[in-house]
Amino acid sequence: VLAEPAPPEFRSAGPVPGDRRTGDLLYELASDRAFGTLVLPRTDERIVVRDGRVVLVESPRSPSLDDLVVGSGHLDAATWSTFKDRTDPPAVPPGMSAFTWERMCRETTLDAAMLVLTDDPGEAELQTGSVPRWTGSIPAEEPDRLVREAGRRKDVLRRLRPVIAPQTVVVKAQEGSRERIQLTGTQWALLIEVQEGVTPLEVAPRIGHGVTSATLLCYGLLRLGLLRTDRGDDRQPPEPVGALFL
Amino acid sequence: VVTTEDLLQEVATIEGFVAASVVDPLTGTVLAGASTTADADVQVIASGATELMHALTLMASQLATGSTVEDVIVTTTDLYHFVRVVEPAEGETALLVVMADRTRTRLALALREVRDAGKTRAR
After folding, report:
1. Which of A99, A108, A191 to probe by mutation at the B interface, max B CB count within 10 Å?
2. Lower CB density within 10 Å: C or N end of chain A?
3. Using an 8 Å Cβ cutoff, are B22 and B31 in contact?
4. What is the pLDDT of residues B7-31, one digit of tens each?
């Protein structure tokens, strides 16, 4: 049960001196058992903490929870907005399963955490007491576990980078020489969205998954010969890829 | 509402239970974990299970026989590792990874319990 939200109170934690990273701030918030939203104004990023544990991380550099929930068609914009505005929101948005809700929240947080936690936070403000009521059912993560998992995912993407990155444009491979292939539902959903060419970063919200998941899905379809990277396309990012997402 | 924690509770009663986790099959992220010992590194086991399933799923895709991978049992000198594909909600897939002590576990019985747990579906 969330405490009655007090009017946001701004506590300046910065500028953060030296070589500290945003991840370091999380450990301080954990030891203070902080309850509020850490705002990084320079990058417009937010980390919601409850009792010192991380509930949600959002960054403009990766798809938000709004993007995943609404972009994938799980909820329409009005239902999602109503859910977020309610003073007594249900544990799970109407029409969604608990598992899907939990997965989307986690994917949003982990993708954003990869970008946010290793950055120099610059100025940081803790808005004490500012925790949206609708985040009450989201499982909170210990900072240590979040930092480790974000690092692990970063390593996974680094290993894939010679083949595919979140900004690599993929297109459907030519039909004809293709053997019979059996696909999962998620692979089908992605393949339908590829059309004229798309990046994992672009397609992720449309299939309701995070960018890391979408990149891995595309990698699997590349290995099956159903997609190919459009290397000659001028939409490809300049090397090294990953300037935006990593 | 059935959650990842509910899935874990169902397998925690297996005789010889050591650890279990519910894992995102795409990224290897542990969605929930439970362990009776500090020695069990749930994340390392989850990553291994995910790699294993990626390889088997690729094989099933190329065989295109209409059959899909349901579960895998890996036997080490002291443990059984069960990796079971579950559908905790419509359109969602997860891996249920269970470790059990070989000296205290009857394989067939444990496998049946893992499979029964995988039948649970969230609303």
Report:
1. A99
2. N
3. yes
4. 888 899 999 999 999 999 988 888 8
Q: Which helix (H) or strand (E) element contains residue B92? A: strand B92-101
CB atoms within 10 A of CB A70: 19
Considering only the beta carbons, identify the residue of A106, A180, A224 that sits closest to B29.
A106
Report which of B117, B122, B88, B120 is spatially closest to residue B100, judged by C-alpha positions: B117
State pLDDT tens for residues A145-194: 899 999 999 999 999 999 999 999 999 987 665 668 888 889 999 999 99
Chain B residues in contact with A110 (beta carbon < 8 A): 27, 29
In chain A, which residue ranges form alpha helices assigned H by DSSP? 22-31, 65-71, 77-85, 98-116, 143-160, 185-194, 200-203, 211-223
**Contact between chains at B29 and A149 (C-beta distance less than 8 A):** yes
Amino acid (1-letter code) at residue A235: R
Q: Is A234 exposed, middle or buried (0-12, 13-18, 19+ CB in 10 A)?
A: exposed
Cross-strand partners of B75: B80
